[in-house]
Amino acid sequence: MDNHFTITIHDDNGVKQFNVHQFVKKAFFYAFVFLLTIGLIAVGTILYLNDSVDKIQQKREAIELAYKNIKNKNIELQESMKATKESLEGKKKELGKLSDSLAEIEILIGLKPLEDRSLNERVSLTKLNSEHRATLLQLIPSGSPVEYHGLTSKFGYRIHPTLYKKEFHRGSDMRAKMNTPVYATADGIVEWAGMHKRSGFGRLVILEHVFGFKSYFGHLNKIVIKSGQFVKKGDLIAYSGNSGLSNGPHLHYEIRFIHRALNPYYFIKWTQKNYNEIFQKEKKVPWQSLITATSRIKVVTPIQTQQSSQQELKSKEN
User: Fold this and answer.
1) CB atoms within 10 A of CB 161
2) Confidence class of residue 275 from pLDDT cuts 50, 70 and 90?
3) For tag attachment on the chain, is the N or C end more exposed, with fewer CB atoms within 10 Å?
4) Beta bridge partner(s), residue 4
5) How far is residue 145's CA from residue 222's CA, in Å, rounded to a whole number?
6) Is the distance from CB of 138 to CB of 186 less than 8 angstroms?
7) How many other C-beta atoms can be found within 10 angstroms of the C-beta atom of residue 182?
8) Which class in CATH covers the domain with range 137-317?
């Protein structure tokens, strides 16, 4: 078998022939195939690496975008946290002021502020007490029946201004010019409205209130209500005058509890601000049992008479 081949080369010097062994031929062939395979693998690797680089670049861009978004959200979150913190600080200051104001209200209505109570408990308790107090001030005579300008004669023993003899004065004579408006000092029903010669009070109005209280308005010039009529605190009931045994225009004002005369001055001064004073000064009324019995009673719309407000203003000025 012939194991070689001839390579013929033509040039200017003539023809040259070379005999190449078949083994060398196969070596060149395998080398070519090997190089071709290496080339193809290199091209495939390069294409694969390019594709991987593109994917990595895309992932990198996605990660950078996500990082940027997270950074922006973090900035927004920090700003939100800052605003929330400022808001909380503001609310904290408001709650502090509210707590201080509530403490003033608690002191005003006679409650001892307790630090271990929550703010909601303190507000509820204050509301309950203020509603209860407003109810009692609505149903029991309180405040002045006329614009307050002082007293001409106090409760207690005195020399009668017209009879000139010592007697017990069951009410307070309040300064009031002729035809000064007189108002009911609590809700009630009109027991008497007219001339009352036997008592010397002239034109007299008697209002019967709840829990055994009554109020008397004497020496009136004109009465604008009738017996059996229901009245609310602050309603106009009469005009002051000089009827009966009187030495000048004024209002005789009495308050009685189960027919016992009470000092009206304590009730004239009785408001939310000095709510507890009357309990120490007026001992003829069983206040504790009264408060307990009325703890669940609530007046929907309590009324503060104009005279009560004027009395409070006068007390402030003094």
Assistant:
1) 15
2) confident
3) N
4) 21
5) 15
6) yes
7) 28
8) mainly beta
